[in-house]
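G., the chain you wanted modeled:
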Amino acid sequence: MFALVSPEKVHLPAGSVVKLPATWQEYQSLFEGRGDSSIPRMKYRQGEVLLMSPLPVHGKDANLIADIVKTILDHDGREYDAFTPITMTLPEESGIEPDYCFYINHWQAVCGKKRIDWQNDPPPDLVIEIDVTSYSDVEDYIPYRVPEIWLWKREKLMIYQLQGITYQLQAQSIYFPKLDLKNAIAGCIKVAYQRNTSAAIRDLRRQLALINDC
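Predicted structure as C-alpha cells:
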C-alpha cells in the first residue's frame, strides 16, 4: 500500500503517519478536500501538517474510554456534554482533532451550540487521546488551554494537567479524584478485549455500585 497526498485526494494505509511542511492555507485545502470523512486525521502546527490513518484498535479504545467517562458521570448524576469527531482550530496557529472531548464543569458554555468558537468559548475540560502510531502530543493542546488530557498509550493511562504553560503528569484526575481511574480503565480494556465493550461497561457499573454500598 502507498500514501497519496494532494489537494484533491488523500489516501494513507491504515496505521501510517505522514508529516509534511505546509502553510495554514494548504492545511485548510487538505481539510476541505477530505469532505465529510474524518479519515485521515489531520493536525496543523508550526508550519507543518500531520496526517494519520487510524487502526481499528484506535477507534475501539477511544470509544471505550469515552464510554467509561460517561458511565462514571452518569453514575454520579453529573451533567456533561461530549463531542466526537470535532476539529479545534486557531487560525494560522493550530488545528487538531481530539479523539474525544468532554465539557464537564463548563457544559453550560456550549449548551445548544452547533459551532464552538475556539478563540472565545472555553476549551473542553477533558480531552481523550489514543496513541497507537506516535501521532499524539499533549503539547498540541497548549494554545487551547485544555485543563486535562488523558493519553492512552501502550496499554497505559497517562493523565496530564495544564500547569502554567506546559502539561505535567499527575496521579489523579481533577474530575474524578476519588477513583482509581488507571486500574478501572485497564480492567475495562481487558474485559473488552476478552469479551466485548458492553460486558466491560456492565462490569464497571457493578463496581461503581459496590463502591456506593461500602
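The radius of gyration is 18 Å.

Shout if anything looks off.
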